[in-house]
Amino acid sequence: MIIQLDWFGCDPRSKWESQIHQTLEQFSTLKTISRAQVRIEQLSQQTPPYHLSVMLSVPGPDVLARSAGHTFDEALLKLTASVRKTLTMRAMKMRELDAAPRGVKAGHRG
Question: Taking the CA atoms of the chain, what radius of gyration do you get in angstroms?
Fold first, then answer.
């Protein structure tokens, strides 16, 4: 996985970077990710000041998510929940499409 981190309004912090890497690794267990772009913004003139956005290049449509929080941890938690929800909903949709309708017997049973 290729990871690109863009920092705006704040300096890169190793703690935040490691948290982002751990979060992306968790996402990769749900779906294969070829590229991840994460934007970290700290805007002192706005409330809430922390804004995060992510774009994950995955098989099928890319996953886009944004979040905001009063702390970095809050924004990251919201972003994680949003991406996890998107990935699990897509997985459920794929299972529904792959499954046979109720009451249909398998073809080999006759």
Answer: 18
> 């006759």: which residue's tokens?
110
* pTM, to two decimals: 0.84
Q: How far apart are CA 94 and CA 59, in angstroms?
A: 12
Single-letter code of the amino acid located at 57: S
- The owner of tokens 């996985």 is 1
**100-to-84, 106, 110 alpha-carbon distances in Å:** 26, 8, 15
Sign of the CA dihedral with 9 first, then 13, 40, and 69 last: negative
Give the residue carrying structure tokens 């994680």. 80
- The owner of tokens 């290729």 is 2
pLDDT for residue 81: 97
CA–CA distance, 66 with 80 (Å, rounded to integer): 10
pLDDT under 50: residue ranges of the chain:
none
CA distances from residue 39 to 51, 65, 83 in whole angstroms, order as listed: 8, 11, 14
Residue 77 and residue 104: Cα distance in Å, rounded? 42
